[in-house]
Write a structure and sequence with these properties.
The protein has 83 residues and is an alpha+beta fold. The protein has 4 helices and 2 strands.
């Protein structure tokens, strides 16, 4: 996933990362709406509360396991909050 063993092998993070990724990926549809790739903004909005909760859990866990070998940059929370 990230190439950082302490993150990729953390048994707590893995399911949260997968769920968050699945929620975001589910917003994409292919060959619908007369487009090769269409993003369902309404589904993203519907999923945003759960994604925000997962992101918060992920951030907290990353802070717990951070051994100084990585820096966390959160690029999604503000955008999701503004949906």
């Amino acid at each position: 996933m990230t190439g950082i063993d302490v993150i990729d092998n953390d048994s707590i993070l893995v399911p949260w990362n997968l769920e968050c990724s699945d929620l975001f990926s589910s917003c994409y549809e292919f060959n619908t709406h007369n487009m090769a790739c269409w993003f369902d903004k309404e589904l993203e909005k519907k999923n945003s509360a759960r994604m925000l909760s997962l992101i918060e859990q992920i951030k907290n866990r990353l802070n717990e396991i951070n051994d100084g070998s990585f820096v966390v940059e959160n690029l999604k929370t503000e955008r999701l909050k503004n949906l």
